[in-house]
Amino acid sequence: MAEHSPKSRDVTPVTSASATPLPREAVSLYCDVLRAMNNHGIPYAVAGAFALQKYTGIWRVTKDLDLFVKADDVPAALDHLCSQGFRCETLDPVWLSKAHRGEYFVDLISGMSNAVIMVDDSWMNRAQPAVIAGVQSQIISAEDLIASKLFVLRRERFDGADIAHVIYRAQGHLEWGRIMELARENWEIVLWALILFRYVYPAHTDYVPAPLWQDLLSRYIHLVQHPDPKAPFRGSLVDENIFSIDVKEWGLEDLQVAYRARQKKSVGKSAPTLGVIRSTGT
User: Fold this and answer.
1) What are the residues whose beta carbons fall under 8 Å from the beta carbon of 191, sequence distance 6 or more?
2) Does residue 79 fall inside a structural domain?
3) Residue 129's domain spans which residues?
4) Is residue 188 part of a domain?
């Protein structure tokens, strides 16, 4: 049996309610990016560590600023940020581009990597006013923050705890209809997140409306009792690496390919080019 040494009191907890000061270089980058987005009228919603802090009080050290942006607006955002001296690149035209300066960077996120949930005007319309790094900005709504984390279930990163924390701190004040609207046919992932929440906070089951529990559980029981032999394999929507053997060796369908192809088609020619690094200035 492995021995476990006691944790040092000097070790910083992974999550903390204590404010963590941002390095000067990070603050400068975040300010410049947010001002550029504001000045050029590009709609965005701040997510990531800043949104988590707003809705839970948890501070998390980060080297990046997450901006949710509609796919159609990403090319213009990259052009403007490049003109401001940032080194810009698109890692995945379906959902992720970056703007770098020094060791810090900004993620421009237009949806989930599996393309199940994508950013549209409704995300911008629901964004809340906030001051980020001293700049008047917009921050993602609590419901959209939860939705953005539903499929972050990978071995190397798991956001289920973040979802549980948001639900707990909201104390029942969430628009679940919005979350279900974004999840659509993937409502079982919402139920999975709620079961985790219930397990972690058993005294606060009432933070989730009883009718929602009843609806999701009854639907789930029906599926269990009446399995569909033609239902598709969905492992790749959770993690295409962990479930790669199912596709590559066992011959099951890669459903993520269909979702991503649909998104690529909807974005069309406006999508930035994969892997191209653009930079002007210093």
Assistant:
1) 216, 217, 220
2) yes
3) 10-140
4) no
